[in-house]
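tool=predict chain=A
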Amino acid sequence: MKIIITGNTGFVGKNLMNFFNKKHVETQGLSLRDLSWKADIDKKADCIIHLAAKAHDIDNKTLEEEYFDVNFGLTKEVFDVFIKSDIKDFFFFSSVKAVADTVEGMLTEENQFKTVLLTAFGRSKSNAETYILNQKLPEGKRLFIIRPCMIHGPGNKGNLNLLYKIVEKGIPWPLAAFENQRSFLSIDNLSFLVLEMLSKPEIKSGIYNFADDEPISTNQLIKIIGSASGRKSKLWSISPYLIKGLAKIGNKMKLPLNSERLKKLTESYVVSNQKIKTALNINNLPLSAEEGLLKTIQSFKK
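tool=predict ok
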């Protein structure tokens, strides 16, 4: 088996390359920044995993056209090459944000919250999904649109690392008054799912959410971080109205706490992974949500 991976220098790409290499699966990293990438594709490979993307910028400094040039334009080009090649499988890593920026209840592949205004990132991913779903898939090929929630793992920076630094320094968590539940996705579970799908030809083309089995509240997460770092976590319940007011000030003054970051830290966003588990005939993923988070957080200590 040979797998082509675009975006192979990113966090997910590096981890997938390492994971497949350990499983003795041949891989080819493909940089779409190189104008010769179309000539470099092994058109007789078994699979393309398209990861290359312009990530969501919570500081809102990215122009809308940049999202569409990369997330829609490049996806269209890569998929067109796939259609004309002998390659059998195509994985497009989209995002849960392609269908809902906020979630009421639980997000499945069916109950898409179309009334919720999507970000430019979400719209660009949604447009890419629409394009590839509207193309006629030749017989013998499979198309998987993967919608992962927040991906994490050892070496991954972002909000988890920010929270870790807060707890490690003994700073109280001031957002404990916000009650929420969020789904996460460990890189180990992501890698497991991709290989399982590749290994089972009976898995049908379609859209699949990727998430760990259990959602975790931010307050639970703070406690997990405290446990992993050997520090006692401190939870402060400050008025949400006051916090939201400070975030609005942060929008104008470019402070670390702004409305977008507050939303990410406190909103509920629960994603169902039942469809992919049913397709693979499994009850649980290899790592629980807490086990995966502990593994990621412990890596920050190094």
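DSSP finds eleven helices and ten strands in the chain. The mean pLDDT is 91.
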